[in-house]
Design goal:
Blueprint lengths: L1 H56 L1 E2 L2 H5 L8 E12 L2 E5 L10 E5 L13 E11 L5 E10 L2
Parallel strand pairs: 1-2, 4-6
Antiparallel strand pairs: 2-3, 2-5, 3-4, 5-6
Keywords: Signal
Protein name: Bacterial OB-fold domain-containing protein
Organism: Sporosarcina aquimarina
């Protein structure tokens, strides 16, 4: 009877030890996941403040101001237009789709944050910087954020 009691006691002791190590491992993984989630949250907050800061600092421009050279290169700008073409990381925008082919602005897609495909015919507001004209005198922008209008 003593032997059975000693074996039972030893079994309970071992079981208690294994449960304690499981709870320690669990708390360590909970701590690391908590730290990871906190880092993700901080990163998301930084992204939001960066986005808000850029949007507040951007001056709204129209096509005429860009085409006539009234907008200096590397100025933070905001442009609203409709996507009419998509080519290898660039979006072709027009402020009025029914207007002539001459009023085209090409946007290099350098977006930060979530990237979603933007289909042709979508009205968007682009936040970024005006770069310069290409070989055909078509204005080019670098888009850091693109808001889809609904």
């Amino acid at each position: 009877m003593k032997k059975i009691f000693i074996l039972l006691l030893a079994g309970l002791t071992l079981a208690a030890c294994s449960d304690a190590s499981k709870s320690e491992n669990t708390s360590d993984s909970d701590k690391s996941s908590s730290v990871s989630e906190s880092a993700k949250s901080d990163s998301a907050n930084d992204q939001v403040s960066l986005e808000e800061g850029l949007k507040e600092d951007s001056a709204e421009v129209d096509y005429e101001a860009i085409a006539t050279g009234d907008v200096p290169a590397n100025k933070k700008v905001k442009f609203t237009g409709t996507v009419f073409a998509i080519e290898e990381g660039q979006y072709g925008l027009k402020s009025d789709v029914k207007d002539s082919d001459e009023e085209v602005l090409w946007v290099d897609d350098l977006r930060l944050g979530e990237r979603t495909e933007i289909p042709e015919g979508t009205l968007v507001t682009v936040y970024g910087s005006y770069t310069d004209m290409d070989e055909q005198n078509i204005p080019i922008m670098k888009a850091v954020f693109i808001d889809i209008k609904k």
